[in-house]
Amino acid sequence: MMLAITGAAGFVGRAVVRQLVAEHPQVELLLADREVAGFDGYETLAGDLTDPAVITALTAPHVDAVLHLAALPGGAAERDPAASQAINLDVPLALIEAMRGRRLVIAGSIAVFGGVLPDPVDEATVPTPTSVYGTHKRMVELAFADAVRRGAVSGFALRLPGIVARPAAAGGFGSAFLSDIFHTALAGTPLCMPVAADATSWLMSVRCCAANLVAAALGERTAQEAVTLPALRVTIGDLVAELARHGDVSGVRFEEIPATRATFGSYPALRTPRADALGFRHDGSLTQLVEAVLADL
Fold first, then answer.
1. Residue 236: CATH number of its domain
2. In which domain, by residue range, is 177 found?
């Protein structure tokens, strides 16, 4: 099997490659990104996905499936809607068209749910995006669902929660503080959290995320409607307390920004029975999530 991965050099992409190499060495890989380095022994494709020639090469006949991870982050998308359309909408639409008759897994986002959420959020919750990023992700979900309905593609559109821990001060991510707290605990450096200790988020370790994505890409199941991945609902104060068992969080203080709280710190209970039945999993517990994240830093 030949699996192509976009965004392979990114944070999630590299975790996916590690997972594949460790557990599925028989899978052939085509690794694509704007710059692809450190993947000796694998076929690579360096280029901009907005270039039609790159899409053509990425979806060549020998490619059996595509795992699409590349995206413009939410903060950057809000600042440049045109760039978001080109990357977060036009590229996945092109992949849906080019992968006709084959398997496609698209990494989406819980940003499709928008701001004020019901409690709990479940499969019946209607997405009402309130950002450029979330809107484009929702448009892709609808296009993918229609393609599955027509039998044009198989696979999944998966809504990812907050994935931690991204590299320190990850550019373009308004939720970067959720990752920065892990780096702060290890380094013992100061950090101002833009939400209060009682704020809540849906989190998943990158290791767990990679396992879910690999299972989706290599499996045979298909879902027409987008699937919200299971995630742990974490209180920020509890996260800091758990990290205190592993490092120094004495420099952490809380100065809440209402807009940040509304976007990244007001998540209600999450119920995902459909994703659970499909075999997708969260980290299990906050302790397991923190241990998995710190093991990869």
1. 3.90.25
2. 164-201+232-268+283-296
* b/e code 192-215 from CB counts within 10 Å (16+ = b): ebbbebebbbbbbbbbbbbbbbbb
Q: Dump pLDDT digits (tens) for 183-197.
A: 999 999 999 999 999
Our CA angle for 19, 22, 28, nearest 5°, is: 80
Identity at 181, one-letter amino acid code: I
Residue 274 in domain: no
Residues 66 and 154: their CA atoms lie apart, in Å, by 11
Q: What is the value of pTM for the model shown?
A: 0.96
Give how far Cα 135 sits from Cα of 51, 110, 203, 224, 258, Å: 23, 11, 21, 19, 22
Same domain, 122 and 180: no
Q: In this structure, are 149 and 290 located in the same domain?
A: no
Residue type, 263: T
Alpha-carbon gap, residue 220 to 222, rounded angstroms? 7
Please write the tens of the pLDDT for every residue from 25-34: 999 999 999 9
Same domain for 115 and 24, yes or no, is yes
d(CA 90, CA 15): 25
In a domain, 273, yes or no: no
Residues 212 and 74 placed together within one structural domain of the fold: yes
Spatial CA neighbour of 247 closest among 187, 290, 190, 293:
187
In whole numbers, what is the pLDDT of the chain averaged over residues? Answer: 96
Tell me which amino acid residue 224 is. Answer: Q
- Does a structural domain hold residue 115? yes
Phi, psi (rounded to 5 degrees) for 4: -95, 140
